[in-house]
Specification:
- Helix 9 packs antiparallel against helix 10, helix 10 packs antiparallel against helix 11 and helix 11 packs parallel to helix 13.
- By secondary structure, the protein is an alpha/beta fold.
- An eight-stranded mixed beta sheet has the order 2-12-3-11-10-1-7-4, with helices on both faces. Strands 5-6 form a two-stranded antiparallel sheet.
- It is 32% helix and 13% strand.
Length: 484
């Protein structure tokens, strides 16, 4: 196995410390708070809106309003958001955004009878790439440009740092993998499905040349006794050259790598498999990915990660083994707005609420992992924006009233609030019973670009046409969310 001192120091998040003793590397921001990062936590399907939203006192039902989350009790939180109550100071819940770009795209697709108007395919393509989908005969609609995560990754990369990473699980709503992240038109970003593979990739570990056929686990086992062997040698070399603060940071990262390696190495291979037979262990695999993301950010190996959350087996959130999220619950979950010919079911509604809670708990895990790492006078969570997005607004194929959560990013976001945007724009899709929409979610992505100091005023579509012929602007940031 090849081993590069500079890459290893980078993997320990010690590039700036190495620079102090002649090792080179990246230097954090001048105020010591560290660089800004972002995680796109993308959830398949959507929520039961009535069980996600929270009332906003004294505000018009269709107008803008906000309320404090900091002062709200756990009982006042909605069912789906309640798991986030312990971290409410760091949460910004957003009601009312719409996938306006997807609705505008669908209006054209259906008018012109283009090949694929499936809401799942179109919705997934628009989550991070909000513009007209790439339509090709014989295959499903997909993203037509680089997605926001890839764009931000390219703009924040530097020598020794990975541009971005996509972790998680394949999503197959209709017997076809529907990607969320794109490196370019029709080009899905590579997804790392195994937390341990992600860990090895971040530390730059590569298997040696072997003439015999070996399993992946055998190759990794033959690489080294432990990553810690290298940590120990580098620690002994670097520690005497550092001051007290530097030694403390070095020890912190040494412990971080040790704990993560032990956590990953202690699990059986099936725990990280994507095979259907091992999805019962998905919960643990998700937690492992959250820890890998923490290490990637703490070590400044990348500043942009997209995590594609799994669709779990029903037994993982309290239902029968014969139940399937897509076929048993999603289409039946909204009274008066079912899809695919399904009949409303109270059980299906509750199941989709419980599924939302399951995802919320994983978001909370990520928040806690990031909050456990100090960086200057703050935590890693303070310098990371978690963006919890959904493929659709509901499991019944709606694109209006997205339920969106931003978490962390306290230096740039006004957290501790529940914000409801006004529904004051016409829907581009005439056949949709929801005639009025809130701001396009394109503008949320522009807001993230601005948070990273980028000057962009639009991302993806910058204009759409309402069903009544009105012009809909999809430009500009949502200034209500930013501190500056």
């Amino acid at each position: 196995m090849s081993f590069d001192r500079r890459r290893f120091l980078k993997a320990l998040g010690l590039g700036s410390l190495a620079a102090a003793v002649g090792g080179g590397g990246h230097v954090a921001s001048a105020d010591g708070s560290g660089p800004l990062r972002v995680v796109f936590f993308v959830q398949p399907h959507g929520h039961v809106w009535s069980r996600w939203h929270m009332p906003v006192p004294y505000a018009s039902p269709m107008g803008y309003g906000e309320r404090s989350l900091v002062d709200a009790s756990a009982a006042e939180f909605s069912d789906v958001l309640r798991p986030l109550h312990p971290m409410r100071h760091n949460v910004l819940a957003i009601e009312g955004l719409a996938q306006t770009s997807a609705l505008a795209d669908l209006a054209v697709i259906r008018r012109e009878r283009r090949p694929d108007d499936n809401d799942h395919h179109v919705g997934a393509a628009h989550v991070l790439c909000p513009q007209s989908t790439l339509q090709r005969a014989g295959t499903f609609a997909t993203g037509s440009a680089a997605s926001i995560d890839q764009v931000l990754g390219r703009r924040t990369t530097a020598a020794g740092r990975l541009a971005s990473r996509v972790y998680g699980f394949d999503y197959m709503p209709n017997a076809a993998v529907t990607p969320f992240s794109f490196v370019g038109s029709g080009q899905a970003s590579p997804v790392v499905h195994d937390p341990r593979a992600a860990f090895d990739d971040l530390l730059g570990l590569r298997p040696p040349m072997e003439t015999m056929t070996m399993t992946r686990e055998q190759r990794i086992a033959s690489l080294r006794a432990s990553v810690l062997d290298h940590v120990a040698r580098e620690y002994e070399w670097l520690a005497p050259r550092l001051g007290r603060d530097g030694r403390e940071r070095l020890e912190q990262h040494r412990a971080l790598v040790r704990d993560l390696e032990r956590s990953l190495g202690a699990q059986p291979a099936a725990a990280c498999s994507l095979q259907a037979s091992s999805l019962g262990a998905t919960d643990h695999a998700v937690t492992q990915f959250m820890r890998v993301i923490k290490m990637a950010f703490a070590c400044d190996l990348t500043r942009v990660v997209t995590f594609v959350a799994p669709v779990p087996q029903a037994t993982e959130f309290g239902y029968d083994a014969m139940d399937v999220v897509h076929g048993s619950f999603a289409h039946e979950s909204i009274e008066g707005e079912t899809s695919c010919g399904a009949m409303y079911s109270r059980r299906a509604e509750q199941a989709m609420v419980d599924l939302g809670v399951w995802y919320a708990r994983h978001v909370l895990t990520l928040m806690n992992e990031l909050a456990s790492v100090t960086e200057g006078g703050a935590t890693l969570l303070d310098r990371t924006i978690i963006v919890w997005l959904t493929e659709l607004s509901t499991g019944t194929h709606r694109h209006n009233d997205l339920c969106t959560v931003l978490a962390g990013g306290g230096d740039v976001l006004k957290t501790g609030r529940y914000v409801r945007f006004a529904r004051d724009q016409r829907n581009p899709l005439a056949s949709d019973r929801h005639t009025m929409l809130g701001p396009a979610h394109n503008r949320l992505l522009v807001t993230l670009l601005r948070a990273f100091g980028q000057p962009d005023d639009s991302f993806g579509m910058d204009e759409a046409t309402g069903a009544d012929g009105s012009r809909l602007s999809l430009r500009g940031p949502l200034s209500e969310l930013l501190r500056r």
